[in-house]
Amino acid sequence: MNTLDLHVSTLAEHLLQRGEARQLVAVTGAPGCGKSTLANELARRLNAQRRSAIVVPMDGFHLDNAVLDARELRQRKGAPETFDGSGFVRLVRALKTGEEVFAPVFDRTRDLAIAGAVAVPAETQIVIVEGNYLMFDEAPWSDLAPLWDVTARLDVPMPELRARLIHRWLSLNYSRAVATRRAEGNDIPNAQRVIDRALPCDFTFDGQPHPAPNLPA
User: What secondary structure does DSSP assign to 14-75, as a single string?
Assistant: First the structure.
């Protein structure tokens, strides 16, 4: 069993033991740590076991580039203040009600958010939310902590994060020099900020999963 499978199995087993009421699961960590991969594989596993699950990404709450330009924040895109944090908190509270909710997604290729792109039906049992700032000790993000039923953090060493973040820009056809400049000038400082202001999670996954002691069922 590879590391991803081990992490997914650990979370899926825990979630399946918690019953069938609506659960909100936070998958968080620094940019480039593999949150989307873990969240999507977890949803696939849960759906295969007849527990309805949907992934909702935090990135749909990126502020539009025109707003960032007006605030002189374009070069910091991806930092906490470049998102509609309060709007995202409202979304998570709506998800908590168990009613049908529509959420935006972020199109990285076009560099813009698309409204209403994810439908979360009322019958969805497990909503897996993934994003950098889900367990982050700065307002308004810190308001999210009590809303989650289960929290999981991916902890990847900074040298590996740096390599992944540069590769992300290379995959969008930027030159090596531009990709490195973008990663080192913005992504890596954002990653360090996530690490420095992290709130404790139920699970921390590095090389192996480490559930917190006395985790409630």
Answer: HHHTT-SS-EEEEEEESTTSSHHHHHHHHHHHHHHTT--EEEEEGGGGBPPHHHHHHTT-GG
Residue with tokens 């531009």: 178
Identify the CA nearest to 133 among candidates 72, 89, 67, 95. Answer: 89
CA distance 201 to 217: 15
What's phi and psi for 114, nearest 5 deg?
-120, 115
Residue with tokens 């030159």: 175
**Would you write out the chain's pLDDT as a tens digit for each of its 217 residues?**
578 889 999 999 999 988 778 999 999 999 888 899 999 999 999 999 999 999 999 999 999 999 999 999 998 999 999 999 999 999 999 999 999 999 999 998 888 999 999 999 999 999 999 999 999 999 999 999 999 999 999 998 888 888 888 988 898 888 999 889 888 888 888 999 999 999 999 999 974 444 444 444 3
What span, in angstroms and rounded, lies between the C-alpha atoms of 120 and 130? 14
Residue 203, Cβ neighbours under 10 Å: how many?
19
- Pull the structure tokens for residue 151: 């929290």
The strand order across the sheet containing 203-205 reads 53-57, 126-131, 23-29, 150-154, 203-205, 209-211
